[in-house]
Amino acid sequence: MNRTIHAVINDRGQIKPQKPLIKAKPGEQLAALIVVLGDQAEANEELILSEPAFAREWSRPEEDAAWQNLDQALL
After folding, report:
1. Quick check: 40 and 51 in contact, CB under 8 A?
2. How far is CA 49 from the centre of its chain?
3. Beta strand extents in 14-53 (DSSP E only)
4. Mind listing the pLDDT tens digit for each residue in 20-36?
5. How many helices (H) and strands (E) does the chain have?
6. Where does residue 71 fall: left (phi above 0), alpha (psi -120 to 50 degrees), or beta otherwise?
7. Which residues, in sequence order, are bridge partners of residue 17?
8. Per-residue pLDDT of the chain (75 residues; tens, 9 = 90+)
9. How far apart are CA 45 and CA 59, in angstroms?
10. Are 16 and 10 in contact (CB under 8 A)?
């Protein structure tokens, strides 16, 4: 499951999601990757617009298999 969650970071370094976060099931841990885009007003429009295409590409079973050993290393 790949999902993009848009958030802002305030001047105290706190991350504030714009929508409710995904809740893990009991005993489950979910991985997250945070990419800081810079000033909200200066967010790279091309990056934001290309996210659906990247999500389709990264969500393929071949990609999951290719990165499976990395998933094990993070546990």
Report:
1. no
2. 15
3. 15-17
4. 787 888 988 888 878 77
5. 3, 2
6. alpha
7. 7
8. 567 788 888 889 898 888 878 788 898 888 887 877 776 655 567 777 788 888 888 888 888 888 877 756 665
9. 22
10. yes
